[in-house]
Amino acid sequence: MTKKTVPYIAYKDFPLNFDRYNNMMDELRDAARGFARLEEKGWPGARDLDKRLMAIWSDLSRVWETIVETERHVLYGAPPETDGQRHHPEG
Questions:
Q1: FRET label pair with 33: which of 1, 40, 45, 90, CA 20 to 30 Å apart?
Q2: How far apart are CA 91 and CA 62, in angstroms?
Q3: What's the confidence (pLDDT) of residue 76?
Q4: Burial class of residue 5 in the structure, from the number of CB atoms within 10 Å of its CB (0-12 exposed, 13-18 middle, 19+ buried)
Q5: pLDDT tens, 60-87?
Q6: Residue 53 dihedral angles phi and psi, to the nearest 5°
Q7: Is the pLDDT of residue 50 over 90?
Q8: DSSP assignment string, the chain
Q9: How far apart are alpha carbons 53 and 37 in whole angstroms?
Q10: What distance in Å separates the CA atoms of residue 5 and residue 18, rounded to the nearest whole number?
């Protein structure tokens, strides 16, 4: 089997680098907390928005795990622990 050569990608050009990931996670969590506070004030549907934002937060966390595992595989030859596919819990 021939090993693929992966081109160098500058940190700032990588589609989801650590800084972007952290920023997105912070923004999602802050927005969810904001809707949780609005729910306490009677904002209609705020609890649902909080839950939906946190589901996105959780999904983004799994995306990041896949990116990190793939990077380890590409750089160090460690086999990935996931198949790189999106997995959503049922229900």
A1: 90
A2: 18
A3: 84
A4: exposed
A5: 999 999 999 998 888 888 776 666 555 5
A6: -65, -40
A7: yes
A8: -PPPPPPP--GGGSTT-HHHHHHHHHHHHHHHHHHHHHHHTT-TTHHHHHHHHHHHHHHHHHHHHHHHHHHHHHHH-PPPSS-S-------
A9: 14
A10: 23
* Burial classification of residue 53, based on how many CB atoms lie within 10 Å of its CB (0-12 exposed, 13-18 middle, 19 or more buried): buried
Q: Find, among 87, 24, 31, the residue nearest to 59 by Cα.
A: 87
- Residue 54 tokens read as 């946190």
Amino acid at 79: P
| pLDDT at residue 91, rounded to an integer | 38
